[in-house]
Amino acid sequence: MTNRKDFALFIDNLLAKNCPFALWSMPGSHTPEILVAPQEGLIHPDQLEKLNGQEGFVFAPYNISENAPLVLLKPGIHKKGIDEILTIDCEALQHEKVEEVHPEPPFIISKKDYLKDIETTIGKIKESKLAKVIVSRLIPFQRKSESIGEVYLQLLEQTPNAFVYLVNLPSAATGQTQAGLWMGATPEVLLKSDDKMLETVSLAGTQSRRDDGDYSWHTKEIEEQAFVSRYILDVFYRFNIHPYITEGPDTLESGQVAHLSTIFRFAAKKLDCNLGDFVAELHPTPAVCGYPKPKAARFISKIEKHDRRYYSGYIGPWRLNGDVGLFVNLRCLEVRPEQYILYSGGGITSRSVPEDEWEETNKKATTLLSAIEAVQNR
Ligand SMILES: C=C(O[C@@H]1C=C(C(=O)O)C=C[C@H]1O)C(=O)O
């Protein structure tokens, strides 16, 4: 990447100015895009449906709450490509005053307690109508003096086939609580436009990435991905989406892991007036919540002791120049003053093995951890 150093410095300068911004790269693209919004350019719709007529960049939590508001960055400065982005005059941007935030210490579960929770979850699945639940956990990692701009660029280099983002939403001195600083590299499309078509993807089932590309999938993964596909088709039915095209299931590699993925495509005109309602209905899918959804959501709220905040929410451009590119916020972390908090989870079914599920959450975190370590060890 040319201008790498300048670009990393530019990102660090934006952060030092407390500018609200979203920086992202679409999977397979080496062209980052940025949207810098003034504080008054942040909107907080209280419901997902209210996104219907809006345009900008969405940062949506798993559940909307005071601690995790839904945020829409309105298009202020919007640039594409490193050279274009570097034309933004950082010095001319207003230095935003921010409130000092003292976040609650994260709840870090021990391996022993996590394994116990997974046993409990499997037990519940075996004795009830609950078929699949996603159980997640937090993984802390010490910050040193590394540049966040460099970590972002390292992540981008390591996971070119993911949606790689950095979002900064500092709490304004007078405003409401904001998201803070988040980074991630997610492989999971929630809703993406492509010319006159829209696509959503059913992504689930995890195994380690293989150098030989010779994947075979077991019943557990096939079943857990099928729950997501079935759910997507239920939502299609409710929105009268027909006909549609499916592609897959195929293997999708991302970072150190691989998943099963099916693409569903349909004509965008089907959702001309109610795209926001469709997203509100689709989210959260059984890829991050479970099946059946209401039962799984209730179970998660009891078993998980941490707040998911923006993990397993969704993120991306929303009707920005007419394009939608929403991704599920996975393989992500929150940057806190002294540490990174990584979020990682996995789908539990009656066939789950607790020790394997623990390992899966570790494996999913390795992409982010190796990007941070690569910069810390330079
Ligand atoms: C929940 C996560 O990932 C989701 C769960 C998967 C699984 O259970 O196999 C696979 C892909 C994602 O849909 C995560 O990365 O934290």
From TrEMBL:
Domain of life: Bacteria
InterPro entries, alphabetized: ADC_synthase, Chorismate_C
Transmembrane segments: none
One Pfam short name: Chorismate_bind
Chorismate-utilising enzyme C-terminal domain residues: 111-364
PANTHER family tied to this protein: ISOCHORISMATE SYNTHASE ENTC
Protein name (record): Isochorismate synthase
